[in-house]
Backbone:
């Protein structure tokens, strides 16, 4: 009887409890943007992940002790990672997201809500800055997409993600 009750409770939780989407304030987002966290996964840094899981490494950060490492050692695999996070509590205005990225053999995209921008990935560290507007709501969805080119060994490092209000 106890086993049946446990199974019924588990089924109820899965079926009726709404899914949780992680969100952070601007201050929290900026605090984890350098990947200086306790864990080693993107989920530990509060990112929602789909596709190929990659981790945070201490090998080659731009600054600090850790950075996001993406790679695929084999040409037959295709690196494919989407990482997103909601940022809440934003006032209306113009914001700028800044991040450092380097890599090769890959395409990268950045988007805020539904507005996206291609990122030209360089093999040396480069600082990217993209402005976006918050018009009618207090939260935005920040998303990065990395897609490795077929027949290559794609790699990238990302570090120092931050957002500031500029107007």
Residues:
């Amino acid at each position: 009887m106890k086993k049946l009750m446990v199974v019924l409770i588990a089924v109820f939780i899965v079926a009726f409890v709404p899914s949780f989407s992680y969100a952070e304030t601007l201050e929290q987002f900026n605090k984890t943007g350098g990947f200086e966290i306790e864990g080693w996964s993107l989920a530990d840094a509060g990112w929602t992940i789909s596709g190929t899981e990659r981790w945070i490494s201490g090998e080659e950060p731009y600054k600090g002790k850790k950075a996001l490492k993406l790679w695929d050692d084999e040409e037959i695999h295709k690196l494919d990672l989407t990482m997103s996070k909601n940022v809440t509590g934003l006032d209306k205005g113009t914001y700028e997201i800044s991040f450092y990225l380097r890599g090769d053999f890959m395409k990268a995209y950045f988007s805020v809500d539904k507005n996206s921008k291609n990122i030209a990935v360089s093999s040396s560290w480069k600082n990217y800055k993209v402005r976006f507007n918050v018009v009618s709501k207090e939260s935005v969805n920040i998303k990065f997409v990395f897609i490795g080119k077929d027949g290559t060994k794609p790699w990238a490092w990302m570090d120092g993600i931050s957002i500031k209000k500029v107007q």
User: Anything to note?
Assistant: The helical segments are 2-16, 26-32.
